[in-house]
Amino acid sequence: MFFFFFNNTFFFCLFLQAESIINSHGIVELNVFRAQWMSELKPNSGSNGGNRGLSSRAADLRRKQELAREEKARELFLKAVEEEENGAVYEAIKYYRRAMQIVPDIEFKINYSRSPDPDGGNEKDMDGEIEDLLAYFHQQLTLQDNSLKICVPEVEMTQMHISALPPEVLIYIFRWVVSSDLDLRALEQLSLVCRGFYICARDPEIWRSACLRVWGRSCTKLVPFNSWREMFLERPRVRFDGVYISKTAYIRQGEESLDGFYRAWHQVEYYRYLRFFPDGQVMMLTTPEDPLVTVPRLRSRNTRVESIMCGHYRLSQDTDNQTKVFVVVSKRKEEPATPMCYRKHPAPETEHSFHVGLQLSSGGRQSFNKLNWIHHSCHINYRSTGETVVTAFDLDQMYASFFFARVKSYTAFSERPL
């Protein structure tokens, strides 16, 4: 009698649990529960171990339900990540919320497997895995005559397919994708098209050319890196697909009113912009205008923005393994205006240049996205005497750090191949 009452109570509890599963987690958990319930209704072979069998089956049921919930939450979370990368933030929030309602700590139970971002992310494939994957793709795409077939058309085509091009031509096209602006992000995205494009995107000569454009003769040897791609991903460098922005804000006391009753206070805000180019050129601009207005004007080095300073930069790595960026900029030379009057003692002709020292570091999930001030000075050169006067500025709270902001329009077009 007690055993019968226990079975009825147990099935009634399972029924309540099934009802809660339907309301909260959906059809996947219900199917698991229904299959387990039907298996429990079958007659048992032993009578003495009935209670132990029920408890073990209940534990298995809970374990299967937890696995089903975790799998469903994982799918929703990965879907949210995909929507967020595509810019659909509102849809991503909905998927995040649904995933965390099922498993609150699902974020820490997911193993991310994405292709590395050569300009932003810290997730990088291990060299051994890349070599094995390349060898595997080579083996799959090699024909009987030992020739490499990059790709094959999925459907029949009446026009010429890109697979008819030899690998050398495809790699040259890939160099146009990278362009002279070193858009290696586009190359990584292109490698996701198919296995043949993945092989072409891992061509060592492309990555070697990119490294030579960034570091010049200082990267003739791979040591301590195992490949040119690894060097480009891990060695500190400035980024070219955006602009470094520094915002400075402070409060300044104004003049006293005429009646002496009050004194105004002004909040001052201005921005500093640094735009680096792969050929060693750099542009620097200080302006109170918002980045939404200023950033599009810095796309070309031939911009006509007033008060912009142009110059060159170089990278330096000290013994303390800290990478520093040294910048020298000056205003563009303009044609002198015709003087309206002649002075008896004209002002001496001078040239002003600004020397800036910055320390490169990484912050958050992005790499090489922060520049800290370490030096700032003004050099005045008198042409008549050749004398140079140097004025060093004190670095205080007015020198805020630069943070990188990626600008898609900077790499939207290719003017020259790599």
TrEMBL record:
Substrate recognition component of a SCF (SKP1-CUL1-F-box protein) E3 ubiquitin-protein ligase complex which mediates the ubiquitination and subsequent proteasomal degradation of target proteins and acts as a regulator of mTOR signaling. This is F-box only protein. One of its GO terms (biological process) is protein ubiquitination. PROSITE patterns: FBOX. Keywords: Cytoplasm, Signal, TPR repeat, Ubl conjugation pathway. The gene is FBXO9. Residues 1-20 form the signal peptide. It comes from Oncorhynchus tshawytscha (Chinook salmon). The keyword Signal applies. It comes from the Eukaryota.
